Amino acid sequence: MNCITQKTILIVEDEAKLASLLSEYLALADYATHIIADGLAVVPWLRTHSADLIVLDLMLPNRDGIELCRDIRQFSNVPIIMTTARIEEIDRLLGLALGADDYICKPYSPREVVARIKAVLRRINPEQQPTIIPSTPELLSLDPLSYRVSVGKQSISLSTIEFMLLNTLHQEPTRLFSRNQLMDNIYSDQRVVLDRTVDSHIKKLRKKLTVLLPDYELIHAMYGAGYCYEARLK
Ligand code: CA
Fold first, then answer.
1. Is the pLDDT of residue 128 over 60?
2. Which sign, positive or negative, has the C-alpha torsion 46, 222, 107, 93?
């Protein structure tokens, strides 16, 4: 499995529970999400952030999905999936030629929405390569004697475990390491370590690396699978 850039799904939905349920399902499918409940907040957010796809509810406070779809199409081709509580609305929406990419009727199963999102993304950009800057292992230099990692003249010190985790991941950029593989590399003395221990070391490691390289995300979690190293601009 390759390490791929995480896509961001904007969920425009005023039913808070539904929005957070969908967000959880999308997180399981390794998407980043952002939720907006107010119709008027959508365009300003899109002016300053990027989304790979929008799940847009029809009935929203202050500005509805139809108006929003038209607003967004003025400046963006981002894929839009519209959701509506009324099945009879879908024909009407299709007739309006809003430029949405798909329509889903509520109540929906979040699992189905995730499948439809994947299908739309595949259809829109079948051969789109994720925007990953070339792997730059030379960005960091690791000193196995002092357990320090440096970028240029700046350096930070890591714990033994943090250093070994980083060293393992860093030696093979983009390769996905399972928690077990990481543990095997680190604990050659066969000590039993729980998965969450790896997670908490990675968490601390990421925090330290942020101090060193605030503009980069270096260690990426692949849900349920493990971690990989890749220098990507935030
Ligand atoms: Ca609504």
1. no
2. positive
